[in-house]
Design goal:
Order of helices and strands: HHEHHEHEHEEEHEHEHEHEHHHHHHH
Helix content: 40-55%
Number of strands: 10
Number of helices: 17
Distance between the termini: 44 Å
Structural class: alpha/beta
Largest sheet: 5 strands, mixed
Shape: globular
Strand order of the largest sheet: 2-1-3-10-4
Strand content: 15-25%
Mean pLDDT: 91
Length: about 350
């Protein structure tokens, strides 16, 4: 763990240096009208917001910068380096970020999607693996500290396979596909769009949708640094509104949603629509329900979900301590809900 903290500290310093004075100052002062957004290349409403310039239209006085990240672990490092303000990130890395030793000062302000069949564990054809229990002695690729990593550990635990009985390799999705093609991996837990490529030469052993049914749900969340919320609450409201608009587009205009997502992922509209159909997207009104974010009067069950994820990560010795529910509830940004999403 000391080695991990040392690596994170160095990475945070590098991230800060790379972003210049804006990062060093946190980029979130009230006079600094800029927003630094971290996005990931998976099918979501976040890509629609980016593609259609919805936030730029809503906040014409702000300079908005979109930076692509490959996983939640690197996004957490960027938050530690104060080089981003808003991010699309999985629930497992958020649980890590809110726990010791990271204790990142950010808040969950949106639910982008609930993981369904868009994340899965796949065994490569020729590996001889037909079920999760058959992974003993095998090499599995997944991005560490991601929702896929969390789901992989949950799947192994459910099947009675100890982590020490397999070799787990830390690889980003694009690197997983390269290693897969070379035959270096027996299995991988990843997400779309790279998941589709793995399926062409592999068998799905279990999906995140199945694990959710078994009590280990994962989500893609929108998080905002606490300092940015304090300095620019009106910009956070605008961001939540356009993310809600994107959810409406997915539900009511699937052709427009597929076109936008396809352009961002270099996919045909048909392929983009098929990938979107594998995720679970909430309606904007659902976000303020007791099941998810909740309201100022009552924070929703998402806080408990994150605590449960932290407890599992602690049991796997991935974090030092589990934050209590009250602490996590304070990290759910519910100001203005549900009205702000209208």
């Amino acid at each position: 763990m000391k080695k991990l903290l040392s690596v994170l500290a160095v990475a945070a310093l590098l991230a800060t240096a790379a972003c210049g004075d804006g990062a060093a100052g946190g980029g979130s002062g009230a006079a600094d009208k800029s927003i630094r957004i971290a996005y990931q290349a998976f099918p979501s409403g976040d890509l629609i917001v980016k593609n259609q310039g919805l936030l730029e239209k809503a906040l014409p006085d702000y300079k908005i910068t979109w930076t692509k990240f490959d996983s939640g672990a690197s996004i957490n490092t960027a938050f530690l380096g104060r080089s981003i303000d808003i991010a699309a990130i999985g629930s497992s890395p958020v649980a890590r970020g809110l726990s010791a030793p990271l204790n990142i000062p950010y808040q969950v302000a949106f639910v982008l999607d609930v993981a369904g069949d868009n994340e899965a564990l796949v065994a490569r054809n020729g590996s001889g693996v037909t079920d999760v229990a058959g992974l003993r002695g095998k090499k599995i690729g997944t991005p560490f500290a991601s929702t896929a990593h969390y789901s992989l550990l949950a799947a192994l635990s459910q099947a009675g396979v100890k982590e020490t009985e397999v070799t787990i390799v830390d690889l980003e999705p694009q690197d997983i596909f390269a290693a897969w093609t070379r035959g270096d991996l027996d299995a991988a837990y990843s997400w779309l769009p790279s998941l589709d490529e793995l399926k062409k030469n592999g068998k799905v052993l279990i999906s995140s949708k199945q694990l959710a049914t078994a009590g280990k749900p994962t989500l893609d969340l929108g998080v905002v640094s606490t300092s940015f919320i304090q300095a620019h609450p009106e910009a956070v409201d605008a961001w939540r509104k356009v993310e809600a608009q994107a959810l409406d587009i997915i539900a009511n205009d699937p052709a427009a949603a597929a076109k936008a997502v396809g352009q961002e992922l270099n996919l045909s509209p048909v392929d983009a629509q098929r990938q979107l159909s594998q995720g679970v997207f909430l309606k904007p009104a659902d976000l303020a329900s007791d099941e998810w974010l909740g309201t100022e009067a009552k924070v929703g069950k998402l806080a408990g979900n994150l605590v449960s994820a932290s407890e599992f990560l602690k049991s796997q010795q991935k974090i030092d301590a589990v934050p209590d529910l009250a602490t996590v509830q304070k990290s759910i940004y519910v100001k203005g809900l549900p009205d702000v999403l209208g």
